[in-house]
Amino acid sequence: MNLNELDRLLDQVPLVVQGLHPVSLAFLGKPVKVYPTLEELAWILDTPQVVSPHRALSFDTNAKYISRFLTVTVEHDPFTPALNNVLFEHYEMIAASMLNHAQIADRIVAAARNAKTVILVLLDGLSYADCKDWPKVEPCLAAAPTITRVGFPTIIGTPPLAIRLFEVGLTRRAGFTYWERQDEPLSRRLFYTIENTRRLDPSHPDAFGQVVDWLSSQDLENTYVQVVRSALDEYAEGHRTSIPRQAVVQQIRRDLEAVADVLEHKGGPSILFAVADHGILWKDEGHNVEIIGLPGTRYIKGRGGPGRGRLFEVEGQPYWVLDYPQMGRPWKSREQGVHGGISFQESIVPFIQWEINLPC
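Predicted structure:
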């Protein structure tokens, strides 16, 4: 069944829906009430004094109640550029229906209880669309505005992830970053309490290989390793022509697979996580942008502005974040991509969780 057929059927009968990501409900023509349990939906239908909803569904499969409802399987991928048609209008609903940056630290801590080694790779600028065919990759809603100084701190959380993992037994910590830690306030914040933090040499032809070599040489028992790796963000500015992005994405995957190979060889229960701070809206994708006259490209600091925007407040700082396809100003000649706004390309990023040698 496709989404249009589901939309029509909901006008006739409450449904149990399988195979559909909850974000797909944002594409329906009319609202639908989602019941977390079939027990609740059955109670509503069985209570005469309660007016039953005209359009209702549940994703629950409770065997006690499921025979009372028509069950349908629906095929629809919400994570395509078509999401731009509904993301801005239904932002709160979509945020509540999928993984987001603010939930990642909890996800990592919960999984870490079964592991002796945890590695987190923070990727600077990568869209879910770039790697949606990778194994064990999940779409994640990036914090808004979709910029590094908001995304990475939201992922690390408060208290920082390293402290929380220490409390569950990962007492050894190490870090790697492309940034100068002593000169970069954001880096100091991300690597707070990780004293053994090393700067990767970006001029090295295989900079990430330094991480792999270090991992290979170490006893990783009870160890948390946090890595900031540049992805596509560095190619968004300073280039007059587009760069071969797919080659960069393929190298990122090879780097992650090299880490996984080391963990596999070590033999201990391990988990490799990777997540991006934001995606990128690329000029060569032919977006029909609307220029509205702002000092910023896709967001500004402040409580409001022209155009279709949403207000977000991050640690006391208000931001006015623009809808797709608005831009504050035209593309610059040496600018191949932008980020900061709300769009499928900028807001939906990959979250990877590769479990290695974990007990069944």
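Summary: The chain has eleven helices and 18 strands.
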